[in-house]
Amino acid sequence: MKRAMTFQKIWAVGVTALLFLAGCGGTTPVSPSPASTTASGPLAISVTISPSTLGIRRGGTWTFANTVSGSSNTAITWSMQEQSAGGAITADGVYTAPAVEGTYHLVATSNADPTKSAVAIVNVLKSGFVPTGSLSTARLQHTATLLPGGKVLVAGGGYGPDLIDGFWVADQAELFDPAMGSFSPAGTLSRDGHTATLLLDGDVLFTGGEVGWSNLLPIVSSTADLEKATSGLFEPTGSMASVRESHAATLLSDGRVLVTGGVIPSGISWQGLQEAEIYDPTSGAFTTVANMNVVRAFHTATLLANGKVLVAGGGYPTGGNTAEVFDPATGLFTSTGTMSVARSNHTATLLANGKVLIAGGGTADLYDPATGLFTPTGPMTVSRSSHTATLLPDGTVLIAGGLDNGSESATTEIYDPTTGSFTAGATMRQGRFSHTATLLPDGSVLFTGGATSAGVKINVLSSAEIYN
After folding, report:
1. What would the pLDDT profile of 334-368 be if each residue is shown by its tens digit?
2. Is the peptide bond before 317 cis (omega within 30 degrees of 0)?
3. First and final CA of the chain: distance in angstroms?
């Protein structure tokens, strides 16, 4: 979330400058005094395994880590409770899953005290994550769009030493080729916290977001660009009526694009928006429509089977539980049912049965367009935000990563609409939040970028992985 990011970015720059100046001084650093010691008895030996729970694909490999405390002898011996039926583990902790799905138990035993050990639970599943080529630029809050030819266009995002969303704006777009498993340069586009929408003609519309900095303040844009399907080049198109970032853009049934909400800078803080507008690809222009009933940012906007758009949550500056429906025929927003809890940075997924799964914060709701009501479902296995949700070909939904109590998560879960329940899924190779997840033509899912949390600071990622 924005959380007065302008102030935080200025503060980060100030701290960096002070540290630099301190490092340039001519004084001799003072060595710390030796820590005092007191006589004590031997520490109790304990063993831990990381991760303590793993979800992995049949035949997949994973390198486990271990820690031994209370002894100078940190050596351990790995084994499987189920012996060879549970898979194979090397002396270095490299595990290979068996071909049979099931739950198995990995054991690390201290060599110093064989009575001390730790056990990790290994769930062998039909699907899991494998690494793929890395992005050339680390980024979060970017977009990843599946193009008609099957490649994925990754564009924009933030990177660098910021506390929230990356201090600088990534300007190098990249193209992922599933056949090669690698990324290649795809032109220049500088946007962070923007939207990307695949149009019916194959062009990609990019709107708003931060496009740079001036006097340590973010420049939030009203401009828009098209990535042309015929040339692969970026071209400007009409500008929005409002500057905005952290907004939503939804492709309507007639090929136009509805843009809703977002935030704009206001001093050292941010102001949420009620404004909405529509982009018409035939004219290349934006036209304002009626305002939403509620100020929203970090919300979701989902095209329903009836052609209307469900706009949910994201009341700014705090998450809201309200929702409204936009009717393209009238250009008006109408209030609908309320969610069971307030949410922002959540996900909304249109299911095969026409209902919408709203997930985030450890709880989930189903929206039924026929009744206009939300009904609790789930609950989720993990409390998470800034995660992704992907409708899989079998009708289930893959929920992945995000922030769990302020730290990035590598966990996933699968929602099954037939049972209304979430079950733990495969473990990601890298915990991440504010990443992207893109369903590929073969049914696998590409995950790119995002960040990890280091207290109040973030570490932006260039890694990518595939779920299949």
Report:
1. 999 999 999 999 999 999 999 999 999 999 999 99
2. yes
3. 30
d(CA 390, CA 349): 7
Give me the domains of the chain, ranges plus CATH numbers.
46-125 (2.60.40.1080), 129-467 (2.120.10.80)
Chain position carrying tokens 């905005």: 244
Q: Which amino acid is at 85?
A: A
312-327: buried (b, 16+ CB within 10 Å) or exposed (e) per residue?
bbbbbbebbbbbbbbe
Q: In whole angstroms, give the CA distance from residue 49 to residue 87.
A: 17
Tokens found for residue 8? 């935080």
Amino acid in the structure at residue 45: I
Question: How far is residue 91's CA from residue 87's CA, in Å, rounded to a whole number?
Answer: 14
Q: Rounded CA gap, 59 and 307, in Å?
A: 44
Which helix (H) or strand (E) covers residue 47, if one does?
Answer: strand 46-50
Distance, in Å, from the CA atom of 63 to the CA atom of 51, rounded to the nearest integer, reads: 9
The pTM (predicted TM-score) of the whole model is: 0.90
Q: What are phi and psi of 134, to 5 degrees?
A: -95, 155
Comparing CA positions, the residue from 173, 193, 176, 197 lying closest to residue 185 is: 173
How far is it, in rounded angstroms, from Cα 144 to Cα 151? 10
Q: What is the dihedral of CA 343, 346, 352, 353, to 10 degrees?
A: -10
> How far is it, in rounded angstroms, from Cα 17 to Cα 3?
23
CB 427 within 8 A of CB 55: yes
| pLDDT digit string, tens, across residues 167-211 | 789 999 999 999 999 999 999 999 999 999 999 999 999 999 999
CA distance 48 to 120: 9
Going 255 to 261 to 262 to 263, the CA torsion angle's sign is: positive
Assess contact for 43 and 70: CB atoms under 8 A.
yes
On the 0-12 / 13-18 / 19+ scale of CB atoms within 10 A, 29 is exposed
Beta bridge pairs of residue 357: 349, 366
